[in-house]
């Protein structure tokens, strides 16, 4: 029966063609190497090395065995790695809830790309979820983790663990021809008389509350949109302004301006959220990939 150890000894000797050097490389004594090669030859019924000259040479049988032995050893190493990753919890599937801010900012794509390269045995399946729905999806086991704003819906619930990845300032979106659009920054007091575009979904109340908190006053909403994208389209059409997360900067078109709120006191976070009871290595590894992605984004969108 072929043994991986004997095949490793055979491959090393075939590469060195010298018993002494091969034994040193294998960190064994030369007689032990000779004994193992002899046992392998007896098992196969053919001599693998011609020992009549110096250096020794592979026989025809040895030449035929060499690529097969290398392939077997490679497969053994692959099997060890598969077992190691499985034992460490680094194979399987992660169902990942993702918010619009995680998608638009590029955080989701960067995190998954990095994780696929680091852990090809793990499949990440993103599911777009409104922040208000992420907590429910986690609690009901529909997803294993989420990328989204823990500040909208998670609160102080100890059933969940959230790790801050990146924090985006709230900013004001205006049409490019708005009278305030040329300013480097805008104070919230300058916006009291403006008409705002809000979001219409029942689950968007958390976001509306965050807008009020950022402004420190109750804004007048002339219209409401069904999504951040349609909200920005209404702003670009000159129908109002909107308070948005800086995470939306990548989709700000030429007809819009996104300006800092100079005195805003709140920010929109994107965090890695999971049930506090889930401490498996699969999620820990993805958390590291998400942090890596957040580091790449750095200050580019802030």
Structure description:
- The protein is an alpha/beta fold and about 300 residues long.
- The protein has two domains: about 80 residues, Arc Repressor Mutant, subunit A, CATH 1.10.10; about 210 residues, D-Maltodextrin-Binding Protein, domain 2.
- It is built from ten helices and eleven strands.
- α1 crosses α2, α1 crosses α3 and α2 crosses α3.
Structural class: alpha/beta
Unreliable stretches (pLDDT < 50, length at least 5) are none
Radius of gyration: 31 Å
Please give the alpha-carbon distance between the first and last residues.
63 Å
Q: How many helices does DSSP assign?
A: 10
User: What form results from the Cα inertia axes?
Assistant: elongated
Describe the main β-sheet briefly.
7 strands, mixed
CATH class of the largest domain: Alpha Beta
Q: How many β strands by DSSP?
A: 11
Helical coverage, percent range:
40-55%
Q: Average the pLDDT over all residues and give the rounded result.
A: 87
Order of helices and strands: HHHEEHEHHEHEEEHEHEEEH
Beta-strand content estimate: 15-25%
CATH topology of the largest domain: D-Maltodextrin-Binding Protein, domain 2
CATH architectural grouping of the largest domain: 3-Layer(aba) Sandwich
Count of domain modules? 2
Give a quick summary of the entry.
It contains ten helices and eleven strands.
SSE layout:
Blueprint: H1 4-16, H2 19-26, H3 30-44, E1 49-50, E2 57-58, H4 60-87, E3 92-98, H5 100-104, H6 107-118, E4 122-128, H7 131-139, E5 145-148, E6 160-175, E7 195-199, H8 205-215, E8 220-225, H9 228-236, E9 242-245, E10 256-260, E11 267-275, H10 281-297
Parallel strand pairs: 3-4, 3-5, 7-8
Antiparallel strand pairs: 1-2, 5-11, 6-9, 6-10, 6-11
Helix pairs in contact: 1-2, 1-3, 1-4, 2-3, 6-10
């Amino acid at each position: 029966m072929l043994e991986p150890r004997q095949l490793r000894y055979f491959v090393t000797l075939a590469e060195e063609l010298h018993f002494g050097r091969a034994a040193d490389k294998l960190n064994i004594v030369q007689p032990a190497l000779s004994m193992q090669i002899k046992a392998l030859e007896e098992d196969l019924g053919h001599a693998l090395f011609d020992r009549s000259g110096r250096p020794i040479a592979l026989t025809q049988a040895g030449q035929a065995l060499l690529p097969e032995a290398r392939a077997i050893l490679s497969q053994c190493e692959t099997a060890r790695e598969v077992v190691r990753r499985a034992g460490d919890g680094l194979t399987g599937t992660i169902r990942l809830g993702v918010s619009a801010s995680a998608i638009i900012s590029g955080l989701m794509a960067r995190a998954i790309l990095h994780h696929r390269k680091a852990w090809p045995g793990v499949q990440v399946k993103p599911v777009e979820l409104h922040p208000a729905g992420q907590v429910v999806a986690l609690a009901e086991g529909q997803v294993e983790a989420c990328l989204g704003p823990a500040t909208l819906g998670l609160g102080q619930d100890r059933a969940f663990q959230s790790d801050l990845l990146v924090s985006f300032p709230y900013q004001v979106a205006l049409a490019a021809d708005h009278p305030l659009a040329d300013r480097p920054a805008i104070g919230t007091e300058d916006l009291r008389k403006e008409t705002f575009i809000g979001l219409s979904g029942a689950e968007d109340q958390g976001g509306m509350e965050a807008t009020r908190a950022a402004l420190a006053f109750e804004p007048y909403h002339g219209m409401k949109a069904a999504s951040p994208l349609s909200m920005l389209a209404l702003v670009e059409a000159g129908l109002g302004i909107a308070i948005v997360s800086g995470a939306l900067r990548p989709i700000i078109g030429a007809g819009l301006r996104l300006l800092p709120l100079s005195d805003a006191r709140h920010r929109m976070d994107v965090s890695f959220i999971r049930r506090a009871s889930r401490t498996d290595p699969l999620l820990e590894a993805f958390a590291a990939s998400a942090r890596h992605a957040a580091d790449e984004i750095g200050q580019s969108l802030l």
